[in-house]
Structure formats: C-alpha cells, structure tokens
Amino acid sequence: MTAANNDASPMDGAPVIDFDKFKPTRSFIAARKRKDLAMRALIAVAFIVALIPLFSVLITTIINGVKRLNLNFLSYNMTGVVGGNPTPSGGYGGILHAIIGTLEITFGAMLISIPIGLMCAVYLVEYSNRGRLARVITLLVDVMSGIPSIVAGLFAFSMFTILIGPGTINGFEGSVALSLLMLPTVVKSSEEMLKIVPHDLREASYALGVTKQRTITKIVLRTALPGIVSGAILAVARVIGETAPLLMTAGYIASTNFNLFSGQMTTLPVYVYQEYSKLNANCPANASAACVTTIPMERAWAAALVLILIVLILNLIGRLVAKVFAVKSER
Amino acid sequence: MGQRIDVNHLNIYYGDFLAVEDVNINIEANKVTAFIGPSGCGKSTVLRTLDRMHEIIPGAHCKGEVLLEGKNLYDKDVDPVAVRRDVGMVFQRPNPFPTMSIRENVLAGVKLNNRKISKSDADDLVEWALRGANLWNEVKDRLDNPGIGLSGGQQQRLCIARAVAVHPQVLLMDEPCSALDPISTLAVEDLINELKNDYTIVIVTHNMQQAARIADYTAFFNLKAVGQPGHLEYFTDTTTMFNNPQNEEAERYVSGRFG
Amino acid sequence: MSSQSKTAQQPVSGKNADKVFKGVAYACGILILVVLAAVALFLLFRAWPLIGGDQKANSDTISNFTGGKATSFWSYVGPLLFGTVLISTLALLISFFVSVGIALFISHYAPKKLATILSYVVDLLAAIPSVIYGLWGGLVLVPAIYPFWNWVAKYLGWIPIFAGPAANPSRTVATVSVVLAVMILPIITSMSRDIFLQTPRLQEEAALALGATKWEMVKLAVLPFGKSGVVSASMLGLGRALGETMAVLMILSPGLNYSVKLLQASQNQTIAANIASQYPEANDLGVSVLIGTGLVLFLITFVVNFVARKLTEKASA
C-alpha cells in the first residue's frame, strides 16, 4: 500500500499503523483465560450452593417424616390425644381433619378465583384493546401478586368482622384470603395462554360468521385449555402451603369439621406450625414406655412430608397437563 | 348461486389514518375477480371490508357503501356476524382449528353457530363440502384425524371446505396460495375454477401469473407513496389487463417494470 | 343447496350471549380494581380506632404488647419496620449473587439437558411451602449453622454487625436471612434466567467474533442486556421477603431494637411475624394496632412491587 503509482487512493496520507503494537501480550491472554475459568468456577459453585438447602430440606423432611407417616396418622384427627400418650387406636393422633380442611378451603379458593381470574384474562386479551383500563388492571394484578400473605389474612379477617360480626372464624374466610393470593397467578397464567392462541384461529372463526362469545369459548379457550388448567393447578400448589393467613381466618381445632361455612378448621400447614410450637409433649413420671415426649415434632415432620408430597404431585400434574395435552397449533 | 358486489366511494381508515381512498368497483356474480398491486396498497384491506372482517382490528372503520346484491352491508340494522355467513373468507396461511378433527373442522361453522345438526345431515354436509373442495377422496378414510395433520395444500382446501360448508354467496381469498408449494397451488387454483360456478370469488394475490390464469377480471391497486392512502388504479377484464392495459402504472406493474 | 334454505338455516343470532359474556368479562376486569381497593379500605376501616379512637387506650394496648417499651404507634412500628427491612435486605444481598450465578449457569453455561433439570430444581425450591422452610430452619439449620456463626463472631467480631457472642441456639437475624435468601432465590433466578435467555444472539456472536472469552461475552452482551430485568427481579424477591411470615416466626427470637447485631438473639422482629405471634392474644384494640402495622407492610410491599413492575415495563418497552 505505498503511493508508488500516482492514482489517488483513499488511503493516501493515512497514518501508518503498526498492528503488532495492538497484539495482546501472552500474559494478558493467559490472564483473560484465568478470569474466564474463575468465573466459570464461581458460577458452578453458585449452583451447588443452591442445591444444598434444597436437598437438605427434602432429605430431612423425608427421613424425619416417614417415622410417623402411616395409615393411622392419615385416618385419625387430634381428638383424644393427651400429652405424649398413644390413643386407643394405637397411634398418636393424625391429620385427617387437616387434610379435609386443606381440601375444602383450597377448593373454596379455587371456586372464587379461577372463574374471576379467567374472565379477567379474557377481558384483558380479547376485549380491552390494550387501552388504559387494561394497563391499569395489568399493573394492579402485578401489585396484587406482591401482597404479603399475612395481609391477605388480615383483609379476610377484617372483611368478615365488619360484614358478618366480630370474632367470625370459619373455613370460607380462609378461602377468601387464599383466593386473593391465587387470583393474580390465575390471571397472569391464563393471560399468557390466551395470548399465544394464534390470531389466525380467531379470524377463521369470525369469518365463518361465529359470534365473538362463541369464538372465545369454543375456539380460543378450548385451544388454550391445557395451559389454563396447568396454570390453575400451579396456582393451587402455591396457595395450598399458605399458613399465615389461615392462622387468623380459619383457626385451629383438634376435631374434624366438614362445614366450610361455620366453625374453625385446621389445614395441613397450620397443623405443622401448631405441632412445631408445642415443642414437647408431657409424659407423666408413671407413664408407660409408649409415651413419646418428642411426638409433636415427629407429627410436624410427618405432616410436612404429606404437605410436600401434595405440593410436588400438584406441580407434577400441572406440568404434565401442559405437556401432554398441549394443542399443536403449527404443523 | 353467487351474488354480485358493488362498492361505492369506499374510504377505509385505521383510526384517523386513511388507508384506502375512494374505491369504486363492481364485482360480477359467479366470476373470479383478482386484486393485484404492490405491498401496502390496501388490496387485502379492501377485501376485508367486503365481509367486515376489518372491524376486528381496533379502530378500523370505513365510509361508503358495499352492496351485496343491492343490500348495503354497512346499514345500521346489519349484523356483521351475519354478513360473514353470506361472505366467506379463506386466509393466507391455512388455519384449521387445532383442537378439531377434519370432520369437526368442516362442521365448525354450523356447530359453532349453535345449530343442532343430525348425524346424517352432518355426514352429508361433510361429504358435500369436502367434495366441493376436492379433498374428499384424500381424507374420506380419516375424517376423525386432526385437521392439523394434513399437508399445507390439504389444510388450505380443508379451510375452503370449512368456508363453503356455511354456504356463503361470496368467497373471499386473501393470498390463499402464498404459503403453499407449486403442486398444492395448482390444486387450489383448479378448485377456484370449479367453485366459481357456485360462488362469486374475490382473490388477492401477489402472483400475477396466478391472476392471469384464474381471474376473469383484475383490479390493480396502487399507492402514490409510502404513508399515502392506497387507491384503485385500474379495473378491467384480465385479458386486457395483461395484454393491452390502458393505464401506464398498471402496464409498468404487470410487465415487471414497476418502481 | 339452494339459497331458499338459507333463511331456514339462519342460526340463532347469539347477540345477547355476546353482550352478556362481554359484560361478565368486563366486570371481572373491574373487580380486580374493586378487590384491591377493598383490601385497602377494609384494613383502614378495621384499623380506624388506632387513628380516630381513644389515644389513651391505644397507648395502653401498645405498651401492653411491648412490655412498656413503646407507647405510640410509630415508636411501636418503627423497630418492626427496621427489622423487616434489615432482614429482607440481608436476604436479598445473600441471594442476589447466587441467583444471578445460577441464572447465568442455566442460560449460558450448562448443557441443554442439565439446564432443563436445573430449571425444574429451581421451580421445586419455589414450590416448597414456607412453613416447611420454617420447620427446616428451626430444627435443622439453627443448630447446624451455629459453629459457623461462632467462627464469624470470633474472627470477624471487630466488625460491629458481627459483634459476638454468637447466640446459641442461633435464632438470629443472620440465620433467618439465610433461610429467606433460599426462599427468594427461585424468584430471582427464574426471572433473571428468562431475561438472560432473551439476549439477542447477534450481540453475543458479535462479542465472540471479536475474540472475547465466554465470561467477557457475558459481561459485554448478556449482563448489560439483562441489567434492568435482574434489578426488577431482585425487587420482587425483596417484596416476597418483606412479607414472609412463617419462616421468621418459627426461627427468630424476637426483639424490638434498632439493632444490627446480626449474630445475637432477641434483637429484631418483622412486621409480618409480629402480627402472627401477637394476634392470638390480642384484644379488639390490639387487633386494630396489628392491622395498622399490616397496613404499613402493605404500603411498603406495594411500593417495592410497583417500582419493580415499572422497571420491567421500561425494560421490555
């Protein structure tokens, strides 16, 4: 690139560059490699660190939980349990009442939040045209998903004291609190699912002279159904482990209560907490050898194991539903 | 039998933006009319106003008249949903309902409209529509398979069967072959030739050879510049359009010397 | 088929169903606004005696709660708020780097199969109920972590926050923060992972084509792209930590001080755990006071979540 010929080249007069100057030195390259390796190592460590608590939680719960987890534990409630003494049935009390309470209260929460959440998502995706109201609702749904669970409990409690009367405690109150926590999750997941239904399908349906309502119910919702169901199951899995709001709304009793609308009701997470708070059971000096002082903790672990199993199974079902029944919309 | 469409002084807006300006066109019954023109000239938009499909886009509206056999589709007492049962539409990409079988796809228009239909009537309608769409022989043994499992060309013919099963008077087709391979395209073109005995057909196409092959009349849409409204530049029978156009822009466009 | 049959075949119009359906959908949208307003209103209404009621009775109730330590609402909620913010911030600090590390591992380092498994593991962590974290924290972590805190107090005790002696059992702010960090880790991880995965491939390849190492590519392309997303994920994690009740209630030995002695017991308490622990014994007025503190918590989480969402909105716009 010299100016030997007289043709004017654009490089005429350009500074001469010694590219060797910019070559990275060998030690610099090595340093970069070391840094790269170090970061890889750090990132791998981060992930191992995260695994420790997970496995510790799972393993300790399983090891401690299986000790008392048997048919007797699942089929009796806590009536007639005195201190660390065994009950006439041969067990040490159980969680039947808590399982029933959890199922009823969670079912109540589903009945409230799933229809409202789904229809809210339908409004946002199909009717709102992304106007101002829709943006406000979306923002508030996000804000709602950040409501602390204890505040949801306080809300349900305040609402029932004001509307029904002071000191109202029943299972349905717990359902209201849980539905407040479930609602944003249901709205969000349904919204996502409705959004990914191809627009083509709506157009095809409209072009057949089908009304908007039938297009939505029979084409859009039908196509999005597996995703919506999966989202709802995951939302249930999230609230089924809630404790704090149920402490103040549904209360705690030892016997089985089938009536969602009257009387206190125990749920599994609350049961775990109550047993944990008991620390030790009393065994009088003359008690038989069958009296176990550590029985509350053992019951807490066993109930925790049942709770974890329920949550994990729900998660598994939720994911499987989404995968197995997914509607293929593309070739 | 097909019905004719007369469009008078049609202006189409997206919100405040005038997308297509002052369209006047007379679409003959039982003929194939093709809309051609450069991208963005509004030919698809005009097509969609013929069955009020543009209204599902928020803010889209139009002024002027669209007369279907003399009856204005934009009269106050006309239900847009009912319009779409008289004027069917087939889309660019085949879009069978993924949750439905081939049979259910054909019956979708009737069933979604909450009509109870007896099994034998349904069987007849499915066979009639699939035969009409040249698809019967290919799928008659697997009517309960999902519609999404067919090939692209078959899917598009299934969509045509689905559209004719509602028994419209007019069929609108928005680039129905643009997502298909040449052989499937040929099958659909043959079908269009047969369908015009029973329906009035309006087709938007990017492919001028296709317009020359299948259309009786051709409308050339154009726009002055990007951002300007599109308009109908030239409308004539297909032979004239492609052999001896009396319009400079159209001549430049069909001879490939556009722009 | 002749066109005569057409009139007979005219389907039911369905116009009314259309209107009803739209109305219901619209109402459900509005209901979200109503519910959120109702939450605020019912809480305010129930907490009203605190503001409009007999102030003498109020201060009596509060000094009853605190053993005479505080007499006004603000001197009561002040230390609680301090404790809440302290514990959540610590949890966020612990969790942040680990979460971002795991997110990067999943999005850019791990082979695809391992990455899917890891994503499941992180989701699993998120699925475990907080009461079980509380149980695990109280019965397993508290004894297990004591030697470590003891070591920290011994060698780093000259830093005021690590001032010893380390409490045994270590039902302390430090231990609670670790448990909360584990609890918010999946939130931050999954959001960061999603945003890292969205890094434009072109930018990544541009960096690699310049001869960058993998870490340099991450630093040049991935981190700048994901920055605001990671920040808003952290805010959401913080929001979750602020409102966490059970884990704190079951692990922490509470106190009402403006203290940063992380390794000593009975120093701080959070609003949420305080509500849960005082609630069973509270009288009518006491409940009003607790709901008042709940409102403060609601406001703070509201602000934190609001900021987080605004950041996400900006990032995705």
From TrEMBL, chain A:
CDD domains: TM_PBP2. Residues 99-318 form the ABC transmembrane type-1 domain. InterPro entries: MetI-like (IPR000515), MetI-like_sf (IPR035906), Phosphate_PstA (IPR005672), Phosphate_transprt_permease (IPR051408). It is a multi-pass membrane protein. GO terms for cellular component: plasma membrane. GO terms for biological process: phosphate ion transmembrane transport. It holds the Pfam family BPD_transp_1. The chain crosses the membrane at residues 41-63, 95-125, 137-163, 169-187, 219-240, 300-322. Keywords: Cell membrane, Membrane, Phosphate transport, Transmembrane, Transmembrane helix, Transport. Belongs to the binding-protein-dependent transport system permease family. CysTW subfamily. NCBIfam families: 3a0107s02c. This is Phosphate transport system permease protein PstA. It comes from Bifidobacterium ruminantium.
TrEMBL record, chain B:
Keywords: ATP-binding, Hydrolase, Nucleotide-binding, Translocase, Transport. It comes from the Bacteria. The keyword Iron-sulfur does not apply. The keyword Translocase applies. GO terms for molecular function: ATP binding; ATP hydrolysis activity; phosphate transmembrane transporter activity. SMART domains: AAA. Residues 5-248 form the ABC transporter domain. One of its GO terms (biological process) is phosphate ion transmembrane transport. It is an enzyme of class 3 (hydrolase). InterPro entries: AAA+_ATPase, ABC_transporter-like_ATP-bd, ABC_transporter-like_CS, P-loop_NTPase, PstB-like. Gene3D superfamilies: P-loop containing nucleotide triphosphate hydrolases (3.40.50.300). Its EC number is 3.6.3.27. One of its GO terms (cellular component) is membrane. This is Phosphate ABC transporter, ATP-binding protein. It comes from Bifidobacterium ruminantium.
Automatic annotation (TrEMBL), chain C:
Its main location: membrane. It comes from the Bacteria. One of its GO terms (molecular function) is phosphate transmembrane transporter activity. It is a multi-pass membrane protein. The chain crosses the membrane at residues 24-45, 80-105, 117-136, 148-166, 173-192, 287-308. Residues 81-308 form the ABC transmembrane type-1 domain. GO terms for cellular component: plasma membrane. GO terms for biological process: phosphate ion transport. It is found in: Cell membrane. Keywords: Cell membrane, Membrane, Phosphate transport, Transmembrane, Transmembrane helix, Transport. Belongs to the binding-protein-dependent transport system permease family. CysTW subfamily. Part of the binding-protein-dependent transport system for phosphate; probably responsible for the translocation of the substrate across the membrane. This is Phosphate transport system permease protein.
